[in-house]
Amino acid sequence: MRITVCRKGHFSAAHRLHNPNWDDEKNQRVFGDCNNPQFHGHNYEVIVKVTGELDPETGYLIDLKILRDMINEHVLDRFDHRNLYTEVEDFRNLNPTAENIAIVIWKILREKIDKKYEIKVTLYETERNFVEYEGQ
Amino acid sequence: MRITVCRKGHFSAAHRLHNPNWDDEKNQRVFGDCNNPQFHGHNYEVIVKVTGELDPETGYLIDLKILRDMINEHVLDRFDHRNLYTEVEDFRNLNPTAENIAIVIWKILREKIDKKYEIKVTLYETERNFVEYEGQ
Amino acid sequence: MRITVCRKGHFSAAHRLHNPNWDDEKNQRVFGDCNNPQFHGHNYEVIVKVTGELDPETGYLIDLKILRDMINEHVLDRFDHRNLYTEVEDFRNLNPTAENIAIVIWKILREKIDKKYEIKVTLYETERNFVEYEGQ
Amino acid sequence: MRITVCRKGHFSAAHRLHNPNWDDEKNQRVFGDCNNPQFHGHNYEVIVKVTGELDPETGYLIDLKILRDMINEHVLDRFDHRNLYTEVEDFRNLNPTAENIAIVIWKILREKIDKKYEIKVTLYETERNFVEYEGQ
Amino acid sequence: MRITVCRKGHFSAAHRLHNPNWDDEKNQRVFGDCNNPQFHGHNYEVIVKVTGELDPETGYLIDLKILRDMINEHVLDRFDHRNLYTEVEDFRNLNPTAENIAIVIWKILREKIDKKYEIKVTLYETERNFVEYEGQ
Amino acid sequence: MRITVCRKGHFSAAHRLHNPNWDDEKNQRVFGDCNNPQFHGHNYEVIVKVTGELDPETGYLIDLKILRDMINEHVLDRFDHRNLYTEVEDFRNLNPTAENIAIVIWKILREKIDKKYEIKVTLYETERNFVEYEGQ
Q1: Helices F98-112 and F64-71: crossing angle, nearest 10°?
Q2: Is F40 in contact with A13 (CB distance < 8 Å)?
Q3: Using one digit for the tens of pLDDT, what is the confidence trace for D39-66?
Q4: Which residue range is the domain that position E112 belongs to?
Q5: Strand, coil or helix: F123
Q6: Which residues of D touch A65 (CB under 8 A)?
Q7: Do B43 and C43 touch (CB under 8 A)?
Q8: Burial of F110 (0-12, 13-18, 19+ CB in 10 A)
Q9: End-to-end distance of chain C based on CA atoms, in angstroms?
Q10: Which residue from B116, B114, B106 is spatially nearest to B71, judged by alpha carbons?
């Protein structure tokens, strides 16, 4: 039986959007307020969806406590109360758009979660703006 | 890299459900309170999901400010504080069920959004009743 | 022991804002889109808060099932899928603003709920616009 | 036209997680607090998604009032204010994990809902932990 | 400057409502499904509001991390994944209605939080049923 | 008739907590992660509650469109996508804790909103941490 188990977590971070190959005028024009060199920030919500075969002995796909701890350790603790643009290694050469943050989270977890599972990441930047990535 | 970007918007509108090919008794039986000739209304929430290839230069799939403005101009401003049954051209010959409203929104945006993107529309009529349409 | 018990309910209704003592131009200027003669509508959420002395025998202030049924019968069934402006007696001579709807609900329940309790009504017209009334 | 219609419902129930083929020590180690023999409980939220061809005459995929009543009768009334572990026949030989509850709900509805529709069940055990099952 | 700081927490627990001084018939009549001897359960949400004078040096009323830890240690860890009716000392002689749970939480925190602050507790049993207690 | 009208708005901003009269060690000890010199950020939600006498002619306490525009212009546009610590004049000599942000918003609006109304500000820093201020 193929089932999906989902876990939601939160982190608060600062960021700005900026492409170092462009001049300031183009960065400002493309990214608008999000380019503010003094940064701004968000309460991000991340939903990790893991899909695979149910284990009939436990009735679990994956122990949600273990999934929660993996997300806490490898994602939330790494990003929470950080400045994604200046402090987080994953974004040294990568613009911290919602799209790229979702992809980075997916890649981090893809390394940690058993390959027999598929993974999908949903990242809310605000309640109204969010992205989904499943590694394709 | 294939990714999905989502934007949520809101509009408040009046409607009633009615099939002009049926008599009043059948309309009342099928649509119940929703057939009330004096109308009723909802706060609709619409989520537009756009899927395609990430632009590596911006780190965007599509600029969410542009997507937001398209949804505002072509959907929310057209429906907000309107009576879908009597005032909105799209429903002149179409019953404004949640299903049909979602399909109309999808078609409006399909005209406006670049064909390289796939579009999916989720429409909440209430927190507990909602529909999804992706153009199939 | 003085405690407050709260119950939330929902209804969907159409309305328009209009003062019959004003001409159309003034109604349009003051009420804007809300004056649309074709109506619009909302999913209203109403929270009723009842305050009084705890009954030590039951551990209840008031049985929430009874409070729920009173709200359902006297408020939700009366307003749900109705046009407040044309169909609901309470607004025959009263503009159905969020403020007046909250006051009407408070008065309806004040008649039905034992005078030993205080009542407060919160009415959400949308998630972002809401009013509170406690009978003063 | 292929569309999806969704309905959300709620029930509150007690449960514990336990595998009768394991000794107490292993049950405690695997299920932790969820194994507590005195039970604990949740407010479960269930979303049922039904997919199929739109009926052009009604503008409905399926009448949401009928779908609501089916979910109420066959799922919510069966589980609400019950102890899933001791009282609900479906879990006599099945560990009431979120995964298994979702599968049971899917199977119950698969029996009741016309085979021309596809069904997907999402079950929230808490706001942060949820599962999805679509019968594969 | 007088300000209020609020913290929300969650716990999942089983309970039943029962008055040992009444016979089964009366318990069933008054408490209905909530009297089920096999228990049921909820995801409770608790909001603790603390009011007092702002500390101008920190800009805090009270350090929210300290308030969070107090709530976690003295309330959430004590009730989470427990059966309030059979396992939690506070309800040995007290019916675990939402009202009484809120009062118990208020009394626990009143012992722990400096008397210079006022405390108010809001307890959600479900999204639609909740109570407020402020120690009067 | 005395009534309260409420409007919710959102802004995203960066900040850090820091007292310039303390050394780094004390700032780190008191404010923890919130003291991070690289900043972090939040999606703030602000609810403004305005209380006064209902205008019987309009059925309004205050026109919610006017209240919304005042909040947008004087609060949201001033703080959104800004760094409260480095860029916003109001916090030049004031630590941008949730408490102080709420007080600043209250003072800004107190200048702009007619004195016949009372004002209360609720500020959510996260869904679980929020403050209330009413000018006492």
Answers
A1: 130
A2: yes
A3: 999 999 999 999 999 999 999 999 999 9
A4: 2-133
A5: strand
A6: 32
A7: yes
A8: middle
A9: 23
A10: B106
Q: Is residue B133 less than 8 Å (CB to CB) from chain D? A: yes
Token pair for residue B62?
């599509």
- Kindly report the length of chain E: 136
Please state the rounded mean pLDDT for residues C107-126: 98
Q: Quote the DSSP letter at residue F32.
A: G
User: Hey, what are E44's tokens?
Assistant: 């409770």
Q: What pLDDT is stored for residue E36 in this prediction?
A: 97
For chain A, which residues score pLDDT lower than 50?
Answer: none
**Residues of chain F predicted below pLDDT 50:** none
| Number of domain units in chain E | 1
Task: Give the closest residue to D44 by CA, choosing from B111, B129, E40, E15.
Answer: E40
Q: Using CB atoms within 10 Å of the CB of residue A25, give its burial: 0 to 12 exposed, 13 to 18 middle, 19+ buried.
A: exposed
ipTM over 0.90: yes
Integer Cα distance of B113 and B70 in angstroms: 8
D80 touches chain E (CB under 8 A): yes
The DSSP secondary structure of chain A, one letter per residue, reads -EEEEEEEEEEEEEE----TTS-HHHHHHHHGGGG-TT-EEEEEEEEEEEEEE-BTTTTBSS-HHHHHHHHIIIIIHHHTTEETTTT-GGGTTS---HHHHHHHHHHHHHHHS-TTSEEEEEEESSSSEEEEE---
Give pLDDT, residue F84.
97
DSSP B33: G
- If you measure CA to CA, which chain B residue comes closest to D4? B132
Count CB-CB contacts under 10 A for residue E93. Answer: 7
Q: Do F97 and E3 touch (CB under 8 A)?
A: no
Distance of CA E8 to the CA centre of its chain: 11
Phi, psi of B24 (to 5 degrees): -60, -40
Within 8 A by CB and 6+ apart from A75, the residues are A9, A11, A46, A105, A108, A109
Q: CA E5, CA F123: separation in Å to the nearest integer?
A: 10
DSSP-assigned beta bridge partners for residue B123: B46, B131
How far apart, in whole angstroms, are the C-alpha atoms of residue A81 and residue C69? Answer: 46
d(CA B58, CA B60): 5
Cβ–Cβ < 8 Å for C118, C88: no
Q: Is residue F129 less than 8 Å (CB to CB) from chain A?
A: no
Q: Which residues on D lie below 8 Å from A2 (Cβ)?
A: 136
F125 is known as an active-site residue? yes
Summarize pLDDT for A54-92 with one digit per residue, the tens: 999 999 999 999 999 999 999 999 999 999 999 999 999
pTM: 0.96
Q: Please list the ranges in chain D whose pLDDT falls under 50.
A: none
CB E1 within 8 A of CB F136: yes
Q: Which residue do the tokens 């008191």 mark?
A: F30
Token pair of A67 as six digits: 């999934």
| 3 state SS of D80 | coil
